């Protein structure tokens, strides 16, 4: 089924509920971090992100909806390969996975730090660093009005923003997010770090983590915003013409990344 025929349905994702046990939510986000690192899913958008950083001259990545933080480790690896600018990033989440954030901070040799208190991307604190705002694999969690408000807030604060979703809106993606993901969870969970006995317990003996991850993965596809949806959002934002918007899909060996990148247009020199 193509994106034109698949409407956006904002069904519930279990990990969004505040009552959801932290040990299960962290089991999900830890596994997704591991998958992001293993398959390097965001490498296809690195050229777009690097170009936007250079044109906006903003190099501190301020990440919302960070989950287990694994996406930023990948971004760091690629951006540090051929850049003379020191890498710096800050992770945040509405339900911060502190142990995972500490693991990422250590793995990055301190290049990546984090917020310990909850941060809502739909209502970022006034003291949130301008930097370069990013959301990896999290924009679909927001309803259309909230999603558009996130973009509008970035424009209002003259802050560059990048949205990256490592999935496509298709029947094939639903199959990947259910059958294939389940098999990978059952095979790869013992290799996820940092090691937790609770992760094994709730994967194999009481399989709550796989079942909830499969449901949330299925719903993620239905919630996904297509490039057409994203273009409609930015067209309705006040002062959107002051921003350079790049929206599209970047393909890699394992699938597609839908992306939106926006940053202020350079000021025109007087004639």
Description:
With 271 residues, the protein is α/β, with parallel strands linked by helices. It has a single domain (14-264), classed as 3-Layer(aba) Sandwich (Rossmann fold). It is built from nine helices and seven strands, in the order H-H-E-H-E-H-E-E-H-E-H-H-H-H-E-E. The protein has helices spanning 22-39, 46-56, 70-79, 98-107, 144-156, 171-188, 197-205, 208-223, 227-235, and strands spanning 60-64, 88-91, 112-114, 132-136, 161-165, 243-252, 255-264. The longest helix is centred in the N-terminal third of the chain and has 18 residues, at 22-39.
Please describe the topology of this protein:
Blueprint: H1 22-39, H2 46-56, E1 60-64, H3 70-79, E2 88-91, H4 98-107, E3 112-114, E4 132-136, H5 144-156, E5 161-165, H6 171-188, H7 197-205, H8 208-223, H9 227-235, E6 243-252, E7 255-264
Parallel strand pairs: 1-2, 1-4, 2-3, 4-5
Antiparallel strand pairs: 5-7, 6-7
Helix pairs in contact: 1-3, 1-8, 6-8
Organism: Microscilla marina ATCC 23134
Protein name: Class I SAM-dependent methyltransferase
Keywords: Membrane, Transmembrane, Transmembrane helix
**Which value, in Å, is the CA radius of gyration?**
18 Å
Q: Which architecture does the CATH hierarchy give at level 2? A: 3-Layer(aba) Sandwich
List the helices and strands in order: HHEHEHEEHEHHHHEE
Mean pLDDT: 92
Say what the CATH topology is.
Rossmann fold
Give the fraction of residues assigned to helices: 40-55%
What percent of residues are in strands? 15-25%
- Give me the side-by-side strand order of the main sheet: 3-2-1-4-5-7-6
Distance between the termini: 52 Å
> Quick one: CATH superfamily?
Vaccinia Virus protein VP39
Structural class: alpha/beta
Number of helices: 9
Broad shape: globular
Q: Major sheet, described briefly?
A: 7 strands, mixed
Main CATH class: Alpha Beta
Transmembrane segments: 171-192, 204-225
Keywords: Membrane, Transmembrane, Transmembrane helix
Protein name: Class I SAM-dependent methyltransferase
Organism: Microscilla marina ATCC 23134
């Amino acid at each position: 089924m193509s994106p034109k025929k698949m409407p956006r349905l904002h069904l519930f994702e279990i990990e969004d509920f505040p009552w959801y046990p932290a040990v299960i939510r962290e089991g999900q986000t830890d596994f997704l971090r591991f998958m992001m690192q293993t398959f390097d899913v965001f490498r296809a958008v690195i050229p777009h992100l690097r170009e936007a950083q250079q044109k906006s001259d903003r190099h501190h990545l301020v990440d919302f909806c960070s989950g287990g933080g694994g996406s930023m480790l990948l971004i760091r690896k690629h951006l540090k390969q051929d850049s003379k600018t020191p890498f710096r990033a800050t992770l945040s989440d509405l339900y911060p996975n502190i142990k995972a954030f500490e693991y990422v901070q250590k793995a990055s040799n301190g290049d990546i730090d984090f917020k310990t208190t909850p941060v809502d991307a739909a209502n970022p604190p006034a003291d949130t660093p301008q930097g370069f705002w990013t959301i990896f694999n999290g924009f679909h969690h927001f309803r259309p009005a909230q999603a558009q408000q996130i973009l509008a807030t970035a424009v209002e604060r003259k802050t560059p923003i990048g949205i990256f979703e490592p999935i496509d809106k298709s029947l094939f993606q639903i199959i990947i997010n259910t059958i294939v993901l389940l098999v990978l969870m059952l095979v790869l969970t013992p290799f996820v770090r940092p090691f937790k006995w609770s992760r094994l317990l709730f994967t194999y003996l009481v399989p709550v983590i796989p079942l909830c991850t499969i449901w949330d993965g299925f719903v993620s596809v239905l919630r996904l915003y297509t490039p057409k949806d994203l273009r409609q959002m930015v067209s309705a934002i006040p002062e959107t013409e002051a921003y350079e918007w790049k929206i599209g899909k970047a393909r890699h060996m394992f699938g597609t990344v839908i992306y939106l990148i926006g940053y202020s247009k350079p000021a025109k020199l007087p004639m």
